[in-house]
Predict the structure.
Amino acid sequence: MPFIFPEQMEKIKKNLIEQEETLRIVASFYADAIESNGVIHIYANGHSRITVEESCVRMGALTGFHPLLSVGLTTFMDVIGPNGIRVNQAIEFTEGLGKKMLDEIHVAPNDVLLVVTATGTTAAAVDIALAWSKYFPKNPLIGLCCKEQSMTASPKHSVGKNLVDIVESHTKGIVINNGMPSGDLSVSFSGKTGDYNICPLSSIGALSVTHSLNELTLKELDRRDYAHMVLRNMHLNGYGINYDEWILDQRRRYSRVIYNPDIISKKGNSNE
């Protein structure tokens, strides 16, 4: 029986190349946020949290990426029990959580929200995109998901829309396709014991987008003559070669997420 999963990497590569212009536009939004001492907020639910972790603290990571991860929406590893997956998935359907999460941060001009969800249909992801679009209509809203599934699947949120619908109606809204097939599972085979569908591709697709945006954002900042803080490999040439400096810049930016005098009023895009 042939080994076919590696062939999926060609699909991921093709997906990135086809979206190069879109990725460059998003990288420009990211550069605007970073250059103005702001941040890119990254929300995810379920396994999409991997994308947030890869963006916010990693060798080669840029400062300025701020996680929006709620334990009840992302910690699925207990599988069963009071923190089991059925409980977590029930929380995903609690509408109004998006606004509550945004109430916990200060959003400044040029700040960006990236919403990551494999399918583009999860009610919680739709909920926070709705809240951002309502309260911060001039700030960029980026959706990273399976565009096909988000466009064709039945909505789970009471508003009757999926993530693609919300993002595409936003003034500075951009959808990035994660490259997974609808349904996510990328390998099918029939064996002696049955028929199987395996190998979800959404995480690999989302991570490939993440690092593509890191490259393009840094090159855009360099084009603007803006020298930015990037975490060097702490395992080579001595531990933490620029670790403290990187943390300090991240701390400075995160402090503005907690308290920012340039906060945007939720009544509109004017300062309070």
User: Anything to note?
Assistant: Residues 222 and 228 are 8 Å apart (CA to CA). The first strand starts at residue 40 and ends at 44. Strands lie at 40-44, 65-68, 112-116, 141-145, 173-177, 185-191, 194-200. DSSP finds eleven helices and seven strands in the chain.
